[in-house]
Amino acid sequence: MKTYSHILFDLDHTLWDFDRCATETLVELYQANQLERLGCPSAEAFCEAFHQVNYRLWDLYNRGEYDSERLRRERFFMVLDELDMEYDDSLPPLLAKEYLATCPTKGYVIAGAIELLEKLGQQYPLHIITNGFSDVQATKLKYAGLTDYFQTVTTSDESGYRKPHQGIFHYSLNRIPAVADECIMIGDNLKSDILGAQNAKIDSVYFNPDQNPHSSAVTHEIQSLPELLTIL
């Protein structure tokens, strides 16, 4: 079994439970802003529309077709339009502000994350590589109690590159410092995390809790975070 000197992690959906944190926040926004009066049928429908729109926009962001400010500015306009709601133009910016102020402060993590980091942190320097925005990701790490586990946190904002571009990985390796062969990357996204690691010649672990079928070549694949201990 190959040995590594540094462990690299994605954050959202890999360690930080984005779906749970976002959904709880969206339900609160739905209730506080009385969106049912504007034609939104339910909190569940609001959450579903958000997740669909957010997935599309982040895919565009990862491909370099959207920047962070445009994503933040347009996201809730698109969500409300998806639901055919009648609204004043002041509402989407308000929802965006409240969402960004609240969601990153939700501290839910993926099952087994803390226990895994406790064990790995005794043996390896740990690092984050994320396409998330620097201010938002720092807040997530703080409120989830994850900050102290990581020696470096590299974001697309800071590095100027977005996964799967190898530039964000090279930026992180220069900060550590380390070479690609000393590192392994763990992430849930085949495009940004796994392909990105391959582009940078870094071994990878695909975190696939839903066991989604795929044909991608990955170094390792796991369905739960504790399985990582059998690889390292």
Describe the structure in brief.
By secondary structure, the protein is of the alpha/beta class. It has helices at residues 18-32, 43-62, 68-82, 91-102, 113-120, 134-143, 156-159, 166-175, 190-199, and strands at residues 6-9, 126-130, 152-155, 183-187, 203-207, 220-222. It folds into two domains: 6-17 and 109-230, Rossmann fold; 18-105, Putative phosphatase, domain 2 (DNA polymerase, domain 1), CATH 1.10.150.240.
What share of residues is helical?
40-55%
Number of E-state strands: 6
- Main β-sheet description: 6 strands, parallel
Strand adjacency order, main sheet: 3-2-1-4-5-6
* Count of distinct structural domains: 2
CATH top level of the largest domain? Alpha Beta
CATH fold group of the largest domain = Rossmann fold
Portion of residues in beta strands equals 5-15%
> SSE string, helix = H, strand = E?
EHHHHHEHEHHEHEE
CATH superfamily of the largest domain: HAD superfamily/HAD-like
How many helices? The count is 9
Low-confidence stretches: none
Coarse structural class: alpha/beta
**Overall average residue pLDDT:** 96
Measured between the Cα atoms of the first and last residue, the distance is 8 Å
